[in-house]
Amino acid sequence: MDRVAKLASQNAVVIFSNSSCCMCHAIKRLFYEQGVSPAIHELDEDSRGKEMEWALMKLGCNPSVPAVFIGGKLIGSANTIMTLQLNGSLKKKLKEAGALWL
Predict the structure, then answer these.
(1) Engineering a disulfide at 61: which of 1, 20, 34, 67 sits with its beta carbon 3.0 to 4.6 angstroms away?
(2) The Glutaredoxin domain covers which part of the protein (predicted)?
């Protein structure tokens, strides 16, 4: 849990992902297309990935990936991010966290 919190607080946008997950890929593309450069942590490529996956589930991420943190706060998984994108509030959160300049 401490490792997840530490990693999540190191960048304006942090995404915990699996390299073979199609929804993770879609969420990463969404951020890249908005001009955001998130820190990506591929859990399946990290020696402590399973431990972090359990920590994310304890935080309420189900499924555990993609898990998106903005400004150090857990925002949620793909459904939450897509909802925020569709209702227009994702961009506001990104600006508040300093991930977007315009």
Answers:
(1) 67
(2) 13-75
